[in-house]
Amino acid sequence: MKTDKIQLSAGGGGQESEALIEKIRKFLGYQGKWHGQNEDSAVTKSGQGEFLFFTTDSYTVSPLFFPGGDIGTLAINGTINDLAVRGAKPLAISLGLIIEEGFSESDLKKVLRSIGRISDQEKVPVVTGDTKVMGKGKVDGLVINTSGLGTGTKIIPNSGLRPGNKIVASGTLGDHGATILANRFDYESALRTDCQPLWSQIKSVQKHLTACKDPTRGGLAAIINEMASKAKVKVALDEGAIPFRKETKALCDILGVSPYELASEGRLVAGVAAKQAEAVVKKLQKFDKKAAIIGSVSRGQGVYLKTKIGERKLPVPEGKLVPRIC
Fold this sequence. Notes:
By secondary structure, the protein is α+β, with helices and mostly antiparallel strands.
């Protein structure tokens, strides 16, 4: 029996989410002079050798406050990072707030202070915005939408992996997702979100990057499969080289989830020419000592994980991912 209902669960992602996006795109054929709409930021020429980048995202998380951050830090850092991984210096942010009737004013102020602190720290002003108040039960507390504009002289594509590249991670992965899970299940740990802006890190190594993404929804497994698929290459990740905190692995073992699918909100994963990989890691280690080379790129297809007992495929996350983490 046919149904016209959207077949996507809350927290869904991976192939389900991509299929929904493709359905939406069929109604939005006109692109103007913009391209890269299927990447973290769309881009167009702005004149004098520069490009203009534009991105938007909506953020919902439960709980709204967690060790090391809140929905406000998540929103502004997420938009800054969607520009940064494309090679864009963030210039301006818009802020849309969808607020549930009766939401705590003191909590809203905390969120706004977090956004203001990052805005001031990164010198990226919030220049426009909107608020809507929904009836009780019509939205879960607070939802934030942020859009961002940036400029740059080099476009870093998601699809830029090349045979011979090394894969570099800028620090421990999955910290954000693990922190949300630990908080949600009252698991005592020292875990804190990795949520932070990435522009300074990317700026320091930008000229050496062939491809770059931040491993948000779906974690490393989702974004490295996307990058490999777009570039039509094989990626082999070294299980022993991928930096995960012991607490993250322990939590995953307890809950039966994969650390490769846990989101990070302040990390980058990039393709780098082999001869530049060590230099890139050294620069990134100034920001995080756990930055490392975690794999390599070759001709072929798919993403594989090299383990002590052999090589296995690392699939695209399917079905319901860890819900409401970004």
